[in-house]
Design brief:
single chain; mainly alpha; two-stranded antiparallel ribbon; two-stranded antiparallel sheet; 8 helices; 4 strands; about 5% strand
Length: about 210
Amino acid sequence: LMPVVRESGTILSFDGSSQYYPFLLGLRRDLTEFFSALSNGNFSFPMVNFGFIFGADTITSEVTMYLPFLPIYAFSVLVPYELIGSFIAFSIIFILYLVGLSFWNLCRYFGKNMLWAGFLSAFYAFCGNMFYTAIWNPQFLAMYIAFPFMIIGIDKILHDKSGLALTLSVAWLGLNGFSYLVYTLPFAGLFALLRLLHVKKEKRLFN
């Protein structure tokens, strides 16, 4: 990652500086004010963050849109203001690690050994498209984290096992944004169709 050095610290270009940086600054300020007021017996939370893009409702943007994707953002309250940019860079690296970990879990589910699972997950997580997407808008990587678990959930359902992985991955992805489901579900549906045909063929062979 090649961060861009600005007056406010080391921050990433694209949405890193225009969206995530003001978001984390606002989240840090709002959480600090909230816990400070709560310690004094005053339960209040700011409803609007005018420093975020063109102004946004804090409940919608901070609490329900960004925190479900990466709860680690809440730890921005512990990060000094001048290090928020570095915190963004760290969170992007952490997100890429989660992308690789989810695909590693998919490889292991389908019986790949540790070496192949590690190689394929590294290839999946650190390709050029992932780096570009992570730096441009890290939240888009939610699709790449959830999709392997959706595949696992679909395969388990087709083998008459628990569909919890599919339910949780779809619910979590929906919390991050309806558009992510629009992008992801057609591919999940295509996999389900092809896998169903394969499973039926397997059952015919063994019967």
